[in-house]
User: Fold this.
Amino acid sequence: MLVGCFLLGSFSLIALTAVRWWGDVIVESTFLGNHTSLVVLNLKYGFWFFVLSEAFLFVSFFWAFFNSSIGELSQQGVGHWPPLGVKSICPWKVPALNTAVLVGSGLFVNWAHGAVKAHGLVSMDDSKGNNSKVFMGRVYTGGEYWRIQGLISLGITIVLGIFFTWLQATEYYMASYTIADSVFGSAFFILTGFHGAHVIAGTLFLTVCWVRLYLYHFSYQHHHFGMYAATIYWHFVDLVWVFVYGIIYIWGH
Assistant:
């Protein structure tokens, strides 16, 4: 009971911190105009360093997996990987589908990022119709065409992120081993679990960007750092999963 209270309090504090932080960034950039080009440049450098620190976090987990597996396999026929009694998950079923879903979502987030950039370069007030385009049977003028494309592609990316999380949860439920079953189980659930947490965070990040795009926060000649950061983060999640799939699922199997 006490542990549950501490867990709930910790998650509540994290959620409050994230909401307040995102809210301050949105207010400072969109409504106060405090994000000058120099501030945005520093934010980009800071975000890239954050992604680098996350990369080293996963490197440590991969290192632990390799160290344990090669140690077992180096025992000249005595050791086994996965250890005896542990039946690894077939990489050509749900994991392969998860890979297709996540890689496909990376294509859609690129589409969304390009649409938001174009939306920020074209004025919404286009009375002469110089930038009018037809999309899904309707004529859109100015930046509205790119805004609609961004909303659709970003929405598809969010749905694919949620679908990936659901598939991962289903895989956990059907797995024949737990985090307590040898070092293989520990390494598997730590790596895939941390990656899943990053997918959830990235999905929330993209959802915030979708709401901001819907509310015209990425307007004419307004920077789109939020969308830029979300796109970089999502591609990082994609790249990490490619390594997870190749090393943990295929090579580990």
About this structure: Strands lie at 133-135, 138-140. Residues 136 and 165 are 30 Å apart (CA to CA). The radius of gyration is 22 Å.
